[in-house]
């Protein structure tokens, strides 16, 4: 039943669109991840310089806040990128499994038909020999 539903030509057209969207989202997540890495490095360097200079606490707290936000963005974008790639791999493996199961079922019916035909011909051969 599901094969009939998913064999509609509309799905193949949508698959091309969603593959492009997937690649766009991956590129966006990579850009966000690299931006977060840059921000963490920037504020980590400022953090060390400001701590050594012993400036007022408000500026130090502001830098700590920016460092925390950049680290949060790094973790979120990195984890999102990782999960997106895991999801893509899972979908790919499930698709391959479904195709393999479909081809296995088709081969099994073919083998059963060939076996039935062979039995039929053997029975006819035995009748002719008698």
Automatic annotation (TrEMBL):
Keywords: Endoplasmic reticulum, ER-Golgi transport, Membrane, Protein transport, Transmembrane, Transmembrane helix, Transport
Bilayer topology annotation: Multi-pass membrane protein
GO cellular component terms listed in the entry, alphabetical order: endoplasmic reticulum membrane
TM segment ranges: 74-91
Statement: the UniProt record of this protein carries the keyword Protein biosynthesis: no
Localization (cell): Endoplasmic reticulum membrane; Membrane
Protein name in UniProt: Endoplasmic reticulum transmembrane protein
Naturally occurring in which organism (per UniProt): Chionis minor (Black-faced sheathbill)
Gene name for this UniProt entry: Bcap29
């Amino acid at each position: 039943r599901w094969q009939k539903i998913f064999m509609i030509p509309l799905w193949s057209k949508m698959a091309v669109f969603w593959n492009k969207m997937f690649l766009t989202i991956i590129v966006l997540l990579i850009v966000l991840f690299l931006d977060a890495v840059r921000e963490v490095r920037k504020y980590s360097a400022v953090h060390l310089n400001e701590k050594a200079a012993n400036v007022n606490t408000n500026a130090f707290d502001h830098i700590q806040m920016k460092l925390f936000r950049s680290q949060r963005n790094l973790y979120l974008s990195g984890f999102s990128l990782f999960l997106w790639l895991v999801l893509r791999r899972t979908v790919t493996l499930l698709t391959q499994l479904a195709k393999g199961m479909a081809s296995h079922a088709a081969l099994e019916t073919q083998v059963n038909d060939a076996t039935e035909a062979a039995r039929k011909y053997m029975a006819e051969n035995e009748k002719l020999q008698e």
